[in-house]
Write a structure and sequence with these properties.
six-stranded mixed β-sheet; alpha/beta; globular; four-stranded antiparallel β-sheet
Length: about 260
């Protein structure tokens, strides 16, 4: 089964009774278990698209279906990982990871056991009782990813989750995420502004245009994992994405109207 987005249009009202279109005529089929990266100009509507898939916002027109079921509100089949980690500062690692199970009234002993399993799998042993402020950025994101997966979500939505990390930690987290994806076979939709990251992680790179965003390109990355960012093959894909973004930047500059 798949995530199917059909003729999606989203606009927001303006004070002058008009509307600001953000997404326009987006149609995509995302195969179950695939890793898809999403890239596009800043402010084009990438985060809005993920919020619609999560059911945190409703489309103005169009439909989103997961496994044949329409998403028309908050969807418990999707997990969201944000750039700013979004952990609860008053909860320790175990209780942050177990939080979705607590919301479903899973008995404390059972949810704690499950959370400990994720602690072991995600390399967090020894930090079970630590609070978010006591963790590095990479460790906080591991906790956030574990919390999103513990509830058996089918789709992991990630909005620039590594954007605030230093380059070394970012590289480590990219490798870690790939290992988690290959182990769990979850569907991943991953927003990034980083071209190398988009090509390194994704089986597909969805390129969105300037707002109102449309699918300007859908680049299939045929290179096997693990990928060598210095290879000629990698650079061919990298140049394809860069060419698209350069073209969109030029279009945006032409459309700018002086104040």
């Amino acid at each position: 089964m798949a995530l199917i987005i059909s003729d999606l249009y989203k606009s927001f009202p303006r004070e002058d009774t008009g509307e600001t279109p953000v997404l326009q005529d987006i149609s995509l089929t995302i195969d179950a278990g695939s890793f898809v990266t999403i890239i596009g100009p800043s402010g084009c509507g990438k985060s809005t698209l993920l919020r619609l898939i999560a059911g945190l916002s409703l489309p103005t027109r169009g439909t989103i279906e997961l496994n044949g079921n329409p998403i028309s509100g908050a969807c418990d089949k999707t997990g969201f990982v944000f750039q700013n980690y979004a952990l609860f500062p008053w909860l320790n690692v175990i209780n942050n990871i177990a939080f979705p199970l607590a919301m479903k009234s899973v008995p404390k002993r059972e949810r704690t056991m499950q959370a400990h399993e994720y602690v072991k799998r995600f390399g967090l042993c020894g930090f079970e009782k630590n609070y978010p402020a006591e963790l590095s950025g990479g460790m906080q994101q591991r906790v956030a990813i574990a919390r999103s997966l513990i509830d058996n979500t089918e789709v992991l939505l990630m909005d620039e989750p590594f954007g605030a990390l230093d380059s070394q930690t970012r590289s480590q987290m990219q490798q870690f995420l790939l290992s988690v994806w290959q182990e769990t076979h979850r569907t991943v939709l991953f927003i990034t502004h980083n071209i190398d990251e988009a090509v390194f992680l994704g089986q597909r790179v969805i390129c969105l245009t300037q707002r109102p965003a449309r699918v300007g390109d859908d680049i299939r990355i045929e290179a096997p994992y693990p990928r060598d960012v210095t290879s000629d093959e990698f650079n061919v894909y990298r140049r394809s994405v860069l060419k698209f973004l350069d073209r969109e930047h030029a279009e945006g500059m032409r459309d700018m109207v002086p104040c």
